[in-house]
Amino acid sequence: MQQNIFEKEFAKETVFKDRNLVTPHYTPPILPFRERQIKEMGEILSFSLKGKKTDNLFLYGKTGTGKTSVAKHVVQQLLDFSVKQNLNVEGCYVNCRNHNSKYRVLIKIVKDLYPEENFLGFSAAFVYEKLLDYARKGKEFVVVLDEVDKVKDLDELIYSLTRGNDELDKGSVSIIGISNNLMFKDRLDPRTKSSLCEQEMVFPPYNAEELREILKQRAEMAFKSRCVQSSAINLAAALAAQESGDARTAVMLLLRAGEICDKKGSDKVTDEEVKRAKSKVEEEIILSMISTLPKQQQFVLYTISSLTLQKKGVTRITGEKEEGVLFSGEIYEEYQRIAKSHHSDIISSRWYRQYISELEMYGLIFTTASGKGIRGQTRLIKLGFDAKKIREILGKEIAN
Ligand SMILES: Nc1ncnc2c1ncn2[C@@H]1O[C@H](COP(=O)(O)OP(=O)(O)O)[C@@H](O)[C@H]1O
Ligand SMILES: [Mg+2]
Predict the structure, then answer these.
(1) Tell me: the pLDDT tens digits for 68-112?
(2) Which ligand is located closest to the Cα atom of residue 148?
């Protein structure tokens, strides 16, 4: 008799006890090194339990510093407590990466509030009224807007959500905004900024020691006992700390290292698998980062990768050569040409400089002042990752 094709897959040995617990979708219930943030956020939100509107709150910090996990954890606790005590707090989590306009965010919120109804196609004004109707029942309503910088018409969204409170006698709407972009706040319209950032919390990167502890706990939950060498955990923590102090990178290293083990039928995650997992994880993370950059930033980065491939670098007056280095000005010129050829708007040079700073903050590029041997004052720019790969990914992105 022929064997079912899944028989073999199913019977395969694995190092994982529960692989889910090391995937990026999982929110751990215990978040070491974030006790202070959890406490502060809890204090701010606790006003809602007393029937008051809580201050809007803005959380920011680099990717993988625990913002999403902390926000989900605290809001879940708040809602659990409210139910248990029969109180009137309601909450909703929106990832603005997937819901990236005012209309889409509003639709997502009312869909959560009225799961049995369908609002697609209704006007923004109508949907918004539905939301207020809900609050009017005396609900203190907390909306988490994760990756809030992805909302195209953010000023209008924040304005609507906050204005709602003036129209309510009972109940309230408060916002928790989250962003991975440390400079995003400075970009906001002053009115939006003062509404959204009534309270602020910064999430610092984790150091190697903290990442090691986080990984140790996670490995115990997700892997079978004695399947992960402690030196492998140390290495994953060190690599992630070196890059950016990003817990997501650290956890992903463990996940991919475990998969490599399973694939080759080995029963222990060692340094070897972590090293092999590194380039894979790096690639995945860059991919997800650049594919969600705003369009204009994608144009700028695309320009940098394409010029890097075309040019031979800069030569200083001293004759010294530097490969892969570009002048800020030449990028801006080429950017304008590329954006125009895609029938896109063109950002001013002031915005261009802002975008360059943000790309640097994400670690996608490095910049230095031109210094000796180059005429005039200019910034030199160098790509942080493989130019070919970035151009390939972005070529597809900007085409649609
Ligand atoms: N303090 C922590 N303890 C345990 N795991 C953490 C902690 N902070 C982050 N993580 C892990 O890292 C991943 C990324 O965290 P996340 O909250 O999504 O970061 P951010 O939203 O700041 O990018 C999460 O999936 C979680 O598994
Ligand atoms: Mg997040």
Answers:
(1) 999 999 999 999 999 999 999 999 999 999 999 999 999 999 999
(2) 2
Give me the chain's average pLDDT, please: 91
Residues 41 and 174 occupy one common structural domain = yes
The domain boundary, picked from 239, 265, 291, lies at 291
Asked if 381 and 328 touch (Cβ cutoff 8 Å), the reply is: yes
The residues that bridge with 315 in the sheet, in sequence order, are 321
Same-domain pairing of 284 and 305: no
Ligand 1 neighbourhood includes 69 CB (under 6 angstroms): yes
Rounded distance, CA 268 to CA 258, Å? 8
Note down the domain range covering 274: 14-23+206-291
102 and 198 share one domain: yes
Answer yes or no: is the C-beta of 182 below 6 A from any ligand 1 atom: no
Phi (first) and psi of residue 381, to 5 degrees: -130, 135
Q: Is residue 181 part of a domain?
A: yes
Instruction: Say if residue 47 is in the same domain as residue 168.
Output: yes
pLDDT digit string (tens) for 122-134?
A: 999 999 999 999 9
- Residue 373: pLDDT over 70: no
Residue 166 and residue 210 share a domain: no
pLDDT value for 71: 97
- Here the tokens at position 26 are 């999982």
Atom 13, ligand 1: residue with shortest CA distance: 248
User: Can you read off the two tokens belonging to residue 162?
Assistant: 């906050």
Q: Is the pLDDT of residue 393 over 90?
A: no
How many angstroms does the Cα of residue 35 sit away from the middle of ligand 1? Answer: 13
